[in-house]
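seq:
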Amino acid sequence: MKKIGLAGLLVSWVLFLSGCALAPLQIGFFYTDLKLHTGDHNQKIGSKVGESCASNILGLISVGDASVKEAAAKAGIKEITSIDYKITNILLLYGTYCVIVTGE
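struct:
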């Protein structure tokens, strides 16, 4: 019975920590405020900027639309020139993941 409890605890930790792989940097336990860009670094920056976000509460409830399509639609962007990301986390209690697009 003790082995089953230990195995359950190990699986719980692996699942809990697997959510930390959103960014090249480890997400901080107390506070995270990251802005990052992945992919092609030679992209030009467009004159229009759109942002779409999803939020997470207590790791239990996630809502929102953090898609490139939604971010482009909010700014009326027809041609996307760059995509960036913004991640905020407070005490693993509340977090946001945002997609920021620029274009024309």
